[in-house]
Amino acid sequence: MPQFENKENKVLLMGPPNVGKSVIFNHLTGLDSAIANYSGTTVDYKEGRITYRDDDIYLIDVPGTYTLDSSNEAEQVAVDMLNKGASLLVIVLDANNIESSIYLLLQILEMGIPAIAVLNRIDLLEEKGYSFAAEAFAEELKIDIIETVAVKEFGLAELKNKISEKIQIENQKKLPKKIKASWKNAERLSAKYLKQKSKKAKNKREELGDKLSSPWPGIPLALLILAVIFAIVVGIGMGLRQYVLLPFFRGLVFPQIYRLVTMFTTEGIIRNILVGEYGFLIKGLEWPFALVLPYVLSFYTALSLLEDSGYMPRLAVLLDGLFNKIGLTGGNIIPLLLGYGCAIPGIAATRALATRKERITVAALISLAVPCISQTGALISLLAEESILVMFLVFLVSFLAIIGAAIIMDKSIEGKNEPLVLEIPPLLIPEPKMILRKVWLRLKMYISDGALMMIYAIAAAALLYELGILEQIGRLFQPIIEHWLLMPSEASVPLILGVVRRELAVLPLLEMGLNSVQLFVGAVVALFYVPCIAVLAMLAREFSFIFATKIFLFTIGFSFFIGGIFARLGFLFI
Amino acid sequence: MPLNNDLSLKNFPKNSEAEILHVPKHSLLAPLGLRKGKKIKILSSQAFNGPLVVEIEGRQIAVAKDIAAKILVRHEVSAHAAI
């Protein structure tokens, strides 16, 4: 339940999807709502406080809705929030698609709550050679209107003043005129106030946008773009790790740590916990910051560019035909791609999918076979130096598993997928400031949530290892690890730690001197093994505790099953 | 081309303009501009039986062929006068 629900001065920020509500929200509140150039980025409400002079104003960023006749769970959230009422509505209109924005505005104004309209993206409207008589329009509807270009922060200061004015000054609380919300009225208003100044041919950027979403040359370009992205993520990641971070830690930081620790401790358990086998002053720095962080940085730079340019929906359109053949729809690529960063935003993004069947399928695919960027970084550390071929094999296995699992889930879950209807937003050049901000946010989140968790787990492992408890637990797993997976018994450590975080199912394998087959088996087991604790909690919250339990049990069973089979196949070939 | 039998958007040639006669009930079609009387242009038809990409008043929308089959259109006379 929203924290601010019963507060006075509650302001709802509403509008169609991908209009820039979150950009406005972030600017007004100083918070960080997720932003991208496709519909359905905001799938849940987010609350923030604006303090203006002496008043606190509570602003709520509501998920976008094309209309109030909700078509997915994210839109239903918006309808529910509106039905609970507010002191003021800020309705963001898409100047670029004014007619349908007016329809939504009329629907929302029927609630009879004071309102400010925000006409955003007027730059795109002007670019097309149109103008909209905003003042006269607002006059007819008896509302206030502010023209903005949110990504460039144009008009936002004026909007902030207007919001506080409407909240604070009693006589400003005039009610909007009631006009029946119908397409006829929306079309009439749009025709009355929207004027074409000049007819402009498509510019280069728009032409490129069209090319990227037609099969030719869109498909070869998509392959090229994905290859470049992959090369950037892996190349920059490996480069940073190899030439910057590892030399920094191993050359400068670790010798100092060794020196200090040996100065203050004698040989024994305490020293080993700090700098021994799982010494958390060493592994606790090296694993999260030298091995995983570079990939977090390179992946989110690439993903932010994809998101903000508007390329993701184009990819969805190109892939829809192929995806249909395995029981998915093109739009599913967005949560899946987000899942390659982290499963949690990926699963959250499934709320924008049209059917429950699609939601469950995509969430299960992400949990089972999509490695998050932390795990991918760990897999590259483990495999790339040993053999590039093994690394590609692991990713091939991941792709095949996604395809296989998608087909099986399509056949076994009742119901049909909703055929694709997707808006293709204009192709935009990402704002460097926005990209930097997004990457910085992701890094901050990785350090506060991911890296810290990893350090705790490593500290616990160091303690349990030195006390001999890890070995005891390992003995329980011994039969299955030695006789079924054909791995050394110490490989039980990653399986225990892997429940906490996905990359910890991989990293302890680094120094075990495994042969190629064992590396491959270890990597495959880690790939399919339990998604981390946080993901299980997310699944329980989004779907049900039973669903999360099923995923937990299935991933354990499946990873061992498939690992054992690969172990036998592998040793046949050697 | 037999005009009378060819009313479905699905069968319309690429790059041709048409006027929408009928749109099936669907919560997303109307707000995306697919409404009776609107001019529609087919930009591309995707591979592997994928969706059609159409443009209405400068806005681009991908519509699965199953849905496009139920959208009825008629040729814009002016757009075809040149052929």
**Radius of gyration from the alpha-carbon trace of chain A, in angstroms:** 27 Å
Question: Pairing-aware structural class of the strands and helices of chain B?
Answer: mainly beta
Based on secondary structure, the structural category of chain A is alpha/beta
Radius of gyration of chain B in whole Å, from Cα?
A: 12 Å
Greatest interface: A-B, 37 and 30 residues
How many structural domains does the protein architecture of chain B include? 1
Number of domains of chain A: 2
* Ends apart, CA distance between termini of chain A: 58 Å
Average pLDDT of chain A: 91
Work out the helicity level of chain A.
55-70%
The fraction of residues assigned to DSSP E strands of chain A is 5-15%
Extract low-pLDDT stretches of chain A.
none
Number of strands of chain B: 5
Which assembly state applies to the chains in this document?
Answer: heterodimer
Description:
The complex is a heterodimer of chains A (574) and B (83). Chain A has 574 residues and is of the alpha/beta class. Chain A has 2 domains: 10-196, P-loop containing nucleotide triphosphate hydrolases (Rossmann fold), CATH 3.40.50.300; 215-573, no CATH class. In chain A, 61% of the residues lie in helices and 8% in strands. Chain A is built from 23 helices and 9 strands. In chain A, strand 4 (88-94), helix 3 and strand 5 form a beta-alpha-beta unit. Chain A is elongated. Chain A starts with 9 loop residues before the first strand and ends with a helix. The model of chain A has no long low-confidence stretch (mean pLDDT 91). Mean pLDDT of chain B is 85; it is low at 1-5 and 79-83. Chain B has helices at residues 65-68, 77-80; strands at 17-22, 39-45, 52-56, 59-63, 72-75. Chain B has a single domain (3-77), classed as Ferrous iron transport protein A (FeoA) (SH3 type barrels, Roll), CATH 2.30.30. Chain B contains 2 helices and 5 strands; from the N terminus they run E-E-E-E-H-E-H. Chain B is mostly beta strands and 83 residues long. In chain B, strands 4-3-2-1-5 form a 5-stranded antiparallel β-sheet. Chain A binds chain B through residues 16, 66-67, 69-71, 96-97, 99-100, 103-104, 128, 183, 210, 213-215, 218-219, 313, 316-322, 324-325, 330, 419-424, and chain B through 26-33, 35, 43-51, 53, 57-67. Strand 9 of chain A pairs antiparallel with strand 4 (59-63) of chain B. Chain A: The chain crosses the membrane at residues 221-244, 256-275, 287-306, 326-348, 360-382, 388-409, 443-465, 517-539, 551-573. Chain A: This is Ferrous iron transporter B.
